[in-house]
Design brief:
Distance between the termini of chain B: 156 Å
Order of helices and strands of chain A: EHEHEEEHEHEH
Strand order of the largest sheet of chain B: 3-2-4-5-1-6
Number of helices of chain A: 5
Radius of gyration of chain A: 13 Å
Largest sheet of chain B: 6 strands, parallel
Number of strands of chain B: 30
Number of helices of chain B: 25
Oligomer: heterodimer
Radius of gyration of chain B: 72 Å
Shape of chain B: rod-shaped
Structural class of chain B: alpha+beta
Shape of chain A: globular
Structural class of chain A: alpha/beta
Chain lengths: 122, 881
């Protein structure tokens, strides 16, 4: 009997990067779902709640930090670990301020991504 | 009337002493022409008398004779005078003095004058004795003639001194005989005769003539002078003695009277002299030449010498302070003795007695005889004032002569009276040519009317100062001059002329003109150049904006001068710009700033302003000159560039992210397969590496653009430098197969700063070292530290960098090239970024290298201070630091 795979929700609007992220995480054995829209994250039903959210800072023109704030404000999602992605290394502090648990600058090393994800899920 | 009867031999006719006929006035008042009392003895004759007069001096004889004649003529008698020429002359003179003219008497025949010698010769015999017969003839005839002229019954008075002649000839016997003949004639004459003869008493001086003297006396009725004398027993002796004494007494009295008169005259003369002596404005000194002592000194003299006269009189000349020493006195006395007058033009008074400095006198001395004595008289005049005036005048003349300025003087009619050397030089006319000429000679024709105005002012006592005008030289050259003219007054204050000082201001005028021209040119340049130019006073107030400012701002100069230009600055730039301007003003450091100025339309434009101070010879700032250049275009371009770079690099990151991702996924998946193709794996590995480079380059570009815009963030943590270096070296070594990275030493230092960024610097240096030493195989990293800094150096053994490039390599976008001028790959921004980061940490990054000698890059970083707490905050770094 294998433990069920952790579920990771990726919110990324670039299709290639989304593909990369999905492939990396699935190769590592995670169950991955993806969305390009921030609203979806906010509309998650209880059954759909992931174990980790990987969120791009700039999502379809919206500021990812807003989304993080809102996620943190909802009881359902406030405890879910969030890993933020950004092309700006300087955005890290801003991300942590709003409640993100970790940060990854693009372009990123696969190993680094996997390490951070693992840390958040244990 | 007391007479002495000559024939009275018993001497009883003697008078009481002192009561002589001499003391009795004469009946006929007789005065000589001078109004003086004549001599006291008078002649009174009555009856036939034969009087003899023994006279010591001619005067007394002449007196008696004159009285004899006058009495006779007055009485109507006739007078015959048989006398020497001299006596006749003296008689005539004496009578003329008395207003008695003999000519009338002569014409009337009442006065007959005969020469004694000639008459005597007429009756002298060969044997030297008078011949009686001839005597009676000659004399008788004369008497008869005289008697005829005389009034009837009147006497004939006869004076004769032929007897004296005989006596003088040494023939006393003949004289006595002649006396006897006279007496005989008188006795037997029908006419009454008075006889009067005279002998100079010197003739009887000898004792040998004593008897003869007596005989002569015996032949006379009366002897003059008559005096009573009773002591002598011998009547002859007595007579002689009497006669002698009387003569002597008479002479004496006469002498006394004479002397008194002389004394009176002398006293008057003396008084006059004394008055002169006392009141003279010169000092007068009388000196006895034999003893060289002071006899007299007048008041001015005592003043000059500073001693009262008591202290001067009797002192020797060399002691009184007039001459410096005895030798000088001797020389003076010698000179005075030899010459008429001795003059010393300038004699300093050695002992002046006051404290005004030296005094000088003019001395004139001469020697003359007075009252039978030699006396030396000195006149002294003090010339100290004159001398001082002379010195002052000479001084003044010297000043005028040597003055640089031309100095001249003129009369109130404008005629030149003096002309100094500088005037000669300035105008070319010599003093000789100008003195006596009108000053208008120097005037150009159009300025001639100035002279009237000048003279009018001078006459009114006014001074003319710094009057600028034009004058003409001898050659006709025109000079720009500045005149100062003052009235000259004489000692009474009357204006008698004017003195002029002429200064050639041609040079100054030329300089002024040149300066004006220069200023004109500068102004023209400033006004026409496109740049905005300004000048400011040392205190920072802007006092000049060229027209470009007013055109740009649309404001008037008044609205932006001094510090009002701050009003057109962009609010965001205001503080920084003012601070910089203030700092420059205070320190004198050149000003630099980039800021926005508001244009007339209201929009702002970027400008770069620079200003430098202008200093005078002493180093003091006299003004600031600055310019402001519109760099808005460039600035905007820069911003766009930065924005582009920022956006571009950001944009580039997206595809790189996915590329990197895919490559990594592929590698992972492939290496998990057992039968993976090694070449495929290798290719994938290469792709990964290149993508890393790409990502790195993009990251640098982004950093650079952020650095430009000031958006780069630095974290501050306290970390172990050695650990960072070790980790970085390991990472780079892991990616390098061509070189061995050797680590030496340790810093044991803790640094406060951005670990990632400093790591970035190290990575950059290490990768450069590897890249630029392709022929070598080693890179050495050394660690060291001192009390203040930690030191990391990275050495490669490659091509080296030429000294010219040492600073340039840290420039943005600098491309290094090898000897074949192949540029090495890269954007050339790595070292720029590295340096910026190191600078931000307060450290230094520098290069040690030479062509072919490899390169060593040195980094020094300040050690963390013990007080610094571990901080984890980002600070914004600005480029302006």
């Amino acid at each position: 009997m294998s433990t069920p795979a952790k579920r990771i929700l990726i919110a990324e609007d670039d299709p290639d990067i989304l593909l990369v992220l999905t492939a990396m995480l699935e190769d590592a054995g995670y169950a991955v779902t993806a969305t390009e829209s921030g609203d979806t994250l906010l509309d998650l039903s209880d059954g759909e709640l992931p174990d980790l959210i990987v969120l791009d800072m700039l999502l379809s023109g919206h500021d990812g930090r807003e989304i993080v704030s809102q996620l943190r404000a909802r009881p359902a999602t406030e405890g879910i670990p969030i890993l933020m992605l950004s092309a700006h290394p300087a955005a890290e502090s801003g991300a942590r301020e709003v409640g993100a648990d970790d940060f990854l600058a693009k372009p990123f090393e696969m190993d680094v991504l996997l390490a951070k994800v693992a840390r958040q899920l244990c | 009337m007391a007479d002495i009867e000559g024939k009275n031999a018993n001497g009883t006719g003697a008078h009481a002493m002192g009561e002589s006929a001499l003391s009795k006035p004469v009946g006929t008042a007789y005065r000589n022409g001078n109004g003086h009392q004549p001599h006291r003895h008078r002649l009174v004759l009555d009856a036939s008398e034969h009087v003899v007069h023994f006279y010591e001096r001619d005067e007394s004889l002449v007196d008696s004779l004159a009285a004899f004649v006058v009495a006779g003529l007055d009485a109507g008698a006739a007078c015959v005078v048989v006398a020497t020429e001299a006596h006749r002359r003296q008689l005539a003179a004496r009578l003329a003095d008395g207003g008695r003219d003999l000519d009338e008497a002569r014409a009337q025949g009442t006065f007959i004058a005969l020469d004694a010698a000639k008459t005597l010769a007429r009756f002298m015999a060969a044997d030297g004795m008078p011949d009686p017969t001839r005597f009676r003839e000659v004399i008788g005839a004369v008497i008869a003639r005289a008697a005829e002229a005389a009034g009837s019954g009147e006497r004939v008075r006869i004076f004769g001194e032929m007897v004296a002649l005989l006596w003088d000839r040494g023939n006393p016997g003949a004289a006595i005989r002649l006396e006897e003949l006279w007496n005989g004639l008188a006795a037997g004459s029908a006419h009454p005769i008075s006889l009067f003869c005279a002998y100079p008493i010197q003739s009887f001086a000898s004792e040998a003539y004593g008897e003869a003297f007596g005989e002569i006396c015996a032949n006379h009725t009366r002897v003059i002078p008559d005096e009573s004398y009773s002591a002598l027993t011998n009547p002859d002796e007595r007579l002689r003695a009497i006669a002698r004494l009387q003569q002597k007494a008479a002479s004496l009295e006469a002498e006394i009277a004479e002397r008194k008169a002389v004394e009176d005259r002398l006293r008057i003369s003396e008084n006059r002299y004394r008055k002169l002596f006392e009141s003279s404005t010169d000092g007068i000194l009388m000196i006895d030449p034999d003893s060289c002592t002071v006899i007299e000194a007048n008041p001015v003299m005592t003043q000059l010498l500073g001693s009262p006269s008591e202290q001067l009189l009797g002192r020797e000349l060399w002691q009184i302070g007039l001459f410096p020493d005895q030798q000088a006195v001797e020389r003076f006395m010698q000179a005075v003795h030899e010459q008429d007058v001795v003059r010393y033009e300038t004699l300093p008074l050695p002992l002046s007695g006051d404290d005004e400095g030296n005094r000088y006198v003019e001395l004139a001395g001469s020697q003359f005889r007075a009252n039978g004595h030699d006396v030396v008289q000195c006149h002294l005049r003090e010339i100290t004032q004159r001398k001082r005036a002379e010195v002052a005048a000479a001084h003044l003349a010297a000043i005028v002569t040597s003055a640089e300025d031309a100095i001249a003087s003129k009369t109130l009619e404008g005629i030149v009276t003096s002309w100094n050397a500088s005037a000669e030089r300035m105008f070319g006319y010599t003093a000789h040519e100008m003195i006596g000429q009108p000053i208008t000679r120097l005037f150009p024709p159009d300025r001639l009317d100035e002279e009237d105005l000048i003279l009018a002012r001078i006459r009114a006592g006014q001074r003319i100062e710094h009057f600028e005008t034009v004058r003409k030289t001898k050659e006709g050259r025109l000079l720009d001059v500045s005149l100062t003219i003052s009235p000259i007054r004489d000692s009474s204050g009357t204006i008698i002329g004017a003195s002029k000082i002429v200064r050639d201001i041609t040079e100054r005028k030329r300089a002024e003109e040149a300066l004006r021209e220069s200023e004109e040119r500068l102004r023209f340049i400033a006004e026409s150049m496109p740049q905005k130019i300004f000048t400011a006073k040392p205190n920072g107030d802007v006092d000049y904006f060229n027209p470009q400012w007013m055109e740009f701002t649309g404001l008037a100069f008044e609205e932006i001068r001094h510090r009002r230009w701050a009003g057109v600055l962009h609010p965001d730039d205001l503080d920084e710009t003012l601070a910089r301007w203030r700092r420059s003003i205070e320190t004198g450091e050149p000003f630099y700033g980039e800021h926005r100025f508001r244009r007339a339309g209201g929009d702002y434009r970027w400008h770069v302003s620079r200003a430098i101070p202008i200093r005078d010879d002493d180093g003091r700032i006299t003004m600031w000159i600055g310019s402001a250049t519109d760099i808005d275009e460039q600035k905007q371009l820069e911003e766009r560039q930065n924005t582009f770079i920022s956006m571009a690099s950001h944009e580039l990151k997206t595809p790189v992210t996915s590329l990197t991702g895919f490559t990594q996924i592929l590698r992972r998946r492939l290496s998990a397969q057992a039968d993976a193709d090694s070449q495929t794996l290798r290719f994938l590995e290469r792709m990964d590496a290149q993508l890393n480079k790409l990502a790195s380059l993009i990251g640098d570009l982004l950093d650079v653009s952020r650095m430009q815009t000031g958006a780069l963030a630095y974290r501050q943590t306290r970390f172990d430098l050695d650990a960072l270096v070790r980790e970085t070296v390991e990472n780079v070594q892991a990616a390098t197969t061509t070189h061995y990275l050797r680590l030496e030493g340790a810093t044991c230092a803790r640094i406060v700063g951005d670990q990632d960024r400093l790591g970035q610097v190290l990575v950059n240096l290490l990768t450069n070292a590897i890249k630029y030493s392709p022929q070598a195989d080693t890179v050495v990293v050394r660690l060291d530290a001192d009390r203040e800094c930690a030191h990391v150096s990275v050495q490669d053994f490659g091509i080296g960098i030429a000294p010219d490039d040492h600073e340039h390599i840290f420039d943005r976008f600098y491309q290094a090239a090898d000897r074949e001028h192949n540029t090495y790959p890269g954007l050339g921004i790595g070292l720029y970024i590295a340096r910026t980061i190191v600078d931000q940490h307060g450290g230094r990054l520098w290069l040690e290298s030479g062509p072919g000698a490899g390169s060593t890059f040195h980094v020094s970083l300040p050690l963390a201070q013990t007080e610094d707490a571990d901080a984890d905050h980002a600070t914004h770094a600005t480029e302006e630091e």
